Structures are given as C-alpha cells and as structure tokens.
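Justification of computing resources. Each target in the renewal requires a structure prediction run like the one illustrated here; the chain below, 234 residues long, is used simply to show the kind of job we budget for.
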Amino acid sequence: MSAVPAAIVKAFGQLSDRAVVGVGLKSVAVTLAVFAAASVGMWFGLGWLRESPWVAGLLPADVAGPLVVAVWLAVSLLAFWLLFRVVALAVLQLFADEVVAAVEAKHYPELAKRAQPLPLAREVAVASKGLMRALGYNLLALPVAAVLVFTAVGPALVFLAVNAVLLGRELTDMAWLRHCCGDERANPVPKAERILLGAVVAAMMAVPLVNLVAPLVGAAAGTHLVLRRVGAKA
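Resulting structure tokens:
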C-alpha cells in the first residue's frame, strides 16, 4: 500500500497543470450547477405544496412560510453534504479522460501512445453506472448510519467505509478503461490499495474547499496506481 501515498503526492503536484485546472473548473461548475438546479426545483415544489388545498388548510400562513424555508434549507444542506462526493465523481467521469491523459503525457509518455480514449457515449454510460451504484450503496448504508446516529461519529464512519470502496474502484477504473484492451474487470490495482485511495479521497471530500480538488487528486492518483502496473507488464 506504500504506492498510494506516493501516487497522491504526485497527483497534488499536477494540480497546477493547465489541463487539470481546466477539468477542475468544469467539474466544480457543473457539480454546483446540479445542486443549485435541484435546490431551486425543490423550492418551487415546496411552494406549490404549501399552496395546495390539502396543506394550506392544515397550517396557518405564518407557520407554513417559515416551515417551508426551514425544510428547504435543511434538505438542501443535507443533500449537499451526503451527495456531493457522489455527484462530483459522476461529473468528473465525464471529463476523466482529460485528467488521465494529462497524467499519461507527463509521467507515462510511452503508455499514452497506446491508450484508447473513451468516446463520449461510453463516458456518459460509465458515469451513469457509477452514479447509480454510488446512490444505491449509500442508500443501503442509511439504515446502518441511522442506528449509529447517537454515537456522533458512527454515521460518518459508515459512509466513509462505503465510499472508500466505491471511490477506489471508480478512480482507478478511469485509467484502466483506457488500457484494458476489452478486459474491463481485470483492474490491476490490488483491492487494499483501491480502498486506501478511496478512503483518503472520501476523507478529503468531507473537508470544505479541499473537497473541490479531491476528485481531481483521486483521479490522478488512481491513474498512477494503474499505469505503474500496466507499465511493469509492458
């Protein structure tokens, strides 16, 4: 597992590359736009619900108004906290080829010549599949987290463990799919390294501001973990 810290250090060192910066800006903009659109949609939905006959008759206007605002804020913030890593990773996968290509060009030029970039339709399919998998596993983890809610740190540890497994796979698959020659399931990175990488990135995504660059660091580090093994077999 010593390869993981080295890969993360190299990934941080490449954050200033123009290609990586460009992907970062696009990913953050699209991710925030998704949450903003969802929040606006919920605001109008709650407003419509408040005005509906079966709700308007239950609560006086001076109670319904503040209640709608409170629910809107609570759900928006909770959704952002719980789903940021899921949405950010799905968005990053749409631009993953650019991050992987930047790492290849700088550190593995010979392997870059053999890479097979994914067509847009394939990138969308991979991102959608990863999003559904992440949502599914996080929803399955909710009951366990709810049971541990009174332990303070229990829910955070549950989601960290779940996302460590998910992120480790997604972040290394980004590079592996360009070099797998059709054998997509044969990701060469050992599971222990993938989980460690996923845990580090999941922890980074829980830190404000750091969470904006965490997916980029993870994608670049995952590329190093994959290509060092692809290169060793070449």
